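Changelog-adjacent note: as of this version, every example in the card shows the full chain rather than a window. The one below runs 49 residues end to end.
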Amino acid sequence: MIRKLKSGKFRIYSRSVNPKTNKRRNLGTFDSIAEAKQHEREIQYFKHH
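Full-length structure tokens:
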């Protein structure tokens, strides 16, 4: 899940909620939406290989 921050950057959050904090984990912050989408694809690749 990619969200835009007030600073203009984009952050990837995990799809599932962390049971300890009841919030989504921060998986990285990027300057552009393209970088964030690319990294999200990389995350999905490593989750399934």
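Structural remarks: Residues 10 and 35 are 9 Å apart (CA to CA).
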